[in-house]
Write a structure and sequence with these properties.
The complex is a heterodimer. By secondary structure, chain A is an alpha+beta fold. Chain A has 16 helices and 19 strands. Chain A has one domain: Alpha-Beta Complex (tRNA-splicing ligase RtcB). In chain A, a hairpin with a 6-residue loop joins strand 4 and strand 5. In chain A, helix 4 packs across helix 11 and helix 5 packs across helix 11. The longest helix of chain A has 36 residues. The two termini of chain A are 39 Å apart. The mean pLDDT of chain A is 94. In chain B, the strands form 2 sheets. In chain B, strands 1, 2, 6, 7 and 8 form a 5-stranded antiparallel β-sheet that branches. In chain B, strand 7 and strand 8 form a beta hairpin. Chain B is built from 2 helices and 8 strands; from the N terminus they run ββαβαβββββ. In chain B, helix 1 runs parallel beside helix 2. The radius of gyration of chain B is 14 Å and the shape is globular. In chain B, 25% of the residues lie in helices and 37% in strands. Chain B has a single domain, classed as Archease domain (Archease, Possible Chaperone, Chain: A, domain 1). Classes of the chains: A alpha+beta, B alpha+beta. The interface between A and B is large, with 52 and 43 residues.
Amino acid sequence: MEIKKISEFVWKIEKDKAMKVPAIIYSSDKLIEAVKLDKTLEQAKNVAMLKGILKASYVMPDAHQGYGFPIGGVAAFDIDNGIVSPGGVGYDINCGVRILATNLKLKDIEKKKKELMDEIYNLVPVGVGCKSNLRLSRDELFKVFEGGSEWALQNKMAFKEDIKNTEESGKMKNASLDFVSKEAVSRGLPQLGTLGAGNHFMELQKVDEIYDEKIAKVFGIEKGSITFMIHCGSRGIGHQIASDYIKEMEDKIGFKDLPDRELINADVNSELGQKYIKSMYGAVNYAFCNRQIIMHYVREAFNKVLNVEPKELKLIYDVAHNIAKIEEHLIDGEKRKVCLHRKGATRSFGAGHKEIPENYKSIGQPVLIPGSMGTASYLLVGTNESEELSFSSTAHGAGRVQSRTAALKSLRGEQVKSDLERKGIAVKAKSWKGLAEEAPSVYKNIDEVARVSDNLKLAKKVARLVPIAVIKG
Amino acid sequence: MVTRKFEFLEHTADIKFRAYGSDLNEIFENSAYALKEVMVGGKVKGKNKKKFLIINPVSLRIDLKRLLYSFLEKFLILIDTEGQILAEIKKIKIDEKNGRLEAVFLTDNIKNYNTMTDVKAVTYNDMIVSKEKKFAQVVVDV
């Protein structure tokens, strides 16, 4: 496959007979080598073959191989003649990140750090098969599906400002539970307000560097500020909806003309496409609500251990990084509604965009690129340049470079823990093996991912955050 | 000669395994054990008896990949809904021609074990089901 370097941070695969558009890869000399090693480029090329794709199949700097679509893939489809694909969203629908600002500094928490993390660990269910503290009925689940974070607000687990500072205000309209299987519902009932396991984590952080003082001030942070990050998604109900619709699309539409079975899709306007979109939107709402409830527990823990009022922990922003939705974008100078897929990619609307809350309207949307457990994370700001470059999208994380099996051969959980602790990072984990699998060394260099995003203006760096304590499922 | 039941292979982001067997029943059975091993290492006590039946849709009647996908997915649903993890498969019967699979197996509450990795979903990525080569290969999303 021929991949051509266009400029310092841009590579391109020209359109061939089967592709409807080219593939554009945002990367660096360092990052592109790993991208070339797995199936990322082949998958980006396959996406470029799908019906109704517009402009290009984009690949973000943290990309690695996924299922059907690459992780770090962004693709827009015409809403009249294009498709929606469950594989283009991913199994973990609305996997995403939120970050809280505090008025605290390291000296305020250092002595109570362990106690604080123990309390959070007590309040937030983590690990494989963990169960919610809430007893949800089907009717309540229906409300979560339709209302997203609003459900948490109604149940006194959110402040109004939280809702405003969540992508889509924590609620996709037109979501529905009507087309969701009973298996998916029964997976969703016991899991609201749980973290799960795998790459999901909660992290206490310190602002280590500020790149833009003015914007950092609007975000409510300064050098040395303590922040708290939550990374998780829609749990079993999202996974099951993805799987159910992949299967239903296979049965009803078939995959024999597709380059990869997991690119299975339906026309946006078809009955099946609409059923998937409404169900997926419901899972998106469940995930927003899930992170909101977890944040509520975190506030309770801060209150109990440090006597910090819940209102003093301010949600800077919550972003989704596995999602498809109808958004308006500029295509050949014309504003068009498209079905935009971001799979392992983060929205990065620039200043003035109508979907940004008032408090951020003059600067752009906060963008979060979490590192892997124990490495730095970045807080960035969306740009207007990203509209032309990537349908207003950037990276979503570090992206793995080493397999879990290789990690387990070379690393032990206990060792990973003591290495992190030597760096001053406290660790609480449900599983030693899980800890080794998620060790910092198995991920791409987050600083390099943020550098590429910043240089291209996919999103501009505002602050670098370093972990001081981590909770993992 | 088949000696291993299953093994884990290199995969950058997720978990890939191969499960072996002398026939389809055994290949499927060992795939389920590999999946269990991802989530809970070591022996699980068989306390509760469960069974299920899977039938492929008409359009994909003889599609073994679909059958394996649906089979393994059942164990993920069981964890999230009933908190039960697979201990032992007592009986498995695959009717290939009609795309049917019946399984009877024992489980235990996952709370009684040290869990490791959360499997989000079974995928078709790099999936192979080969009776001739006597193995199945699966990548699970974690």
